[in-house]
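Good morning,

Both structures are done.
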Amino acid sequence: MDILQRIQVKRVLTTESLERIQLSFELKRKQLQMEIEQLRFQQKKQLHLSKHPQDKITAYFANEITKREEQAAIVSYETEQLAVLPLGTEIIEREVEALVPIAVGDTWSQVLQEQEIIIKDDIIIEIRTR
């Protein structure tokens, strides 16, 4: 029988991975800026053409713009924090689910031990049990 278990994937920070992560942060920040500009354009359009109350339209778009601005601030903060980290640092990239085989007679505490996958420059270098 198999059970599902969550496994953390960690990336070792190298110059190559640092550049790749910084690029992804920059692309995310640009995407959020484009969304904010689009929302402002849509707001102006809705205010002129819509029959809905203007205060509701303004409130809706202000809320959506605020969400994007908060996300952009988080990306900026993450970029700053990334610059501070030394090379060789392990950063959590994501979690994946894996099938873990179990059988009668297995020690339950060993089955429940958390595992993590360590990646360096897109190559799995270690699978650890925590």
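Second structure follows.
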Amino acid sequence: MSTDPRPERTLGQLVASATQDISALIRSEIALAKAEIAVQAKKAGVGGGLLAGAAVVLFYSVYFIFITLAEGIQAMGLPRWASFLIVTLVMLIVAAVLGLLGVRKMKTVQPSPDKAIGEAQQTVAGIKAAIANPGTVVPAPPPSWDPRVAKATTNRATTSVSATPATTPTTGSTATPSSTADTTVITTTDSASKPDPSRDA
């Protein structure tokens, strides 16, 4: 006899309790994930702010670098305006070279995916032809960049290499087993068809 004063719970109560426990577990996991993401986002924000500050300082330091170059040229004996003019011309030449390289690179950019569009048009044309003439359209061969083409070529080469000994003419030594096998078969057939003389005796 059970001495436990607690009443036994039904299956529905057990399911409801398990559902509540699972919901509480999921909520706690979500809260933990949110807290972790918040901490990481705060770290990322601080790091981004530091990087932005470094970029600003670097931007203004470039200005002082060019001033230092101009002052150094002036210390070599040139007038102040000439030293600053030289630095300015060097900066303009560098900017012009970088601009020309950028324009040349931008001209090579194709904004529309021509290959993807061509493949899509071929696919649509093939589907239309297959719908118009069912069972008569020959499927197009796969493109050369398809890895299945390289695999099939490798398998074909392996098969041809393995089949080479079978196509070579057989010599007298290799034909002997086949002729022996034929003789054995004929002998067995003849012995089976002739009556055994010892059986008559």
